[in-house]
Amino acid sequence: MGADVPIFIYGFSAFAEGIGEKIHPINLQEKWYLVTYPNININTADVFQYQNLKRNTKYYSLQELLRLPFTNDFENVIRSNFAKVDEIIHLLSKYAPTRLTGTGSCVFSEFDNKENAYQVMDFIPNYATAFVAKSTNISPLRRLFIMNNLLN
Predict the structure, then answer these.
(1) Is the pLDDT of residue 79 over 60?
(2) pTM of the predicted model, to two decimals?
(3) How far from each other are the two terminal CA atoms of the chain, in whole angstroms?
(4) What angle do CA 15, 50, 83 make, to 5 degrees?
(5) What is the band of 147 on the pLDDT scale with cuts at 50, 70, 90?
(6) CA-to-CA distance for 108 and 48, rounded, in angstroms?
(7) So what's the pLDDT on residue 107?
(8) What's the farthest any 2 CA atoms get from each other in the chain?
(9) Residue 148 buriedness (CB in 10 A; 0-12 / 13-18 / 19+)
């Protein structure tokens, strides 16, 4: 199981540190996302073997991270080794902030509204699949759990 899994158990937006053992709840503006899958698989263990993977990223506090532009140390490596990922990021970046998910291969683009996300989805290449999703600060399952406890 990946070190990032613990953060998903709690059911709320959070920032995780270490190997997922330090979890800090956060409340972010909810957005709409176009998630695009180029129909290729990228093995995370293999990505860590790439010689050009940046390995000396500076540590930032949560407050600093929320003020800085988003970066993903894997993105340049993945884009240079997987042409379809590079093509999708290049294309979608014309319409919205677009980034690689973790080590990929999915890419996500951020929108303020659902309509714009669906409009841009029309530009996705035929070899890829995509869907639109809304972010939430509390997962539907946690929300249901809270409501059931309030009613009982």
Answers:
(1) yes
(2) 0.86
(3) 35
(4) 90
(5) confident
(6) 21
(7) 97
(8) 56
(9) exposed
Task: Evaluate if residue 8 carries a pLDDT over 70.
Answer: yes
Tell me: the pLDDT tens digits for 31-78?
999 999 999 999 989 998 998 898 888 888 888 888 888 889 999 999
Is residue 69 within 8 A of residue 40, CB to CB? The reply is no
Q: Check if the beta carbon of residue 110 is closer than 8 Å to that of residue 33.
A: yes
Is pLDDT at 2 greater than 70 in this prediction? no
Q: Are 45 and 103 in contact (CB under 8 A)?
A: no
Q: What is the 3-state secondary structure (H, E, C) of the chain?
A: CCCCCHHHHCCECEEEECCCCEEEECCCCCCEEEEEECCCCCCHHHHCCCCCCCCCCCCCCHHHHHHCCCCCCCHHHHHHHCHHHHHHHHHHCCCCCEEECCCCCCEEEEECCHHHHHHHHCCCCCCCEEEEEECCCECHHHHHHHHHHHHC
Distance between CA atoms of residues 72 and 18, nearest Å: 16
Q: Is-contact 121 35, C-beta < 8 A?
A: no
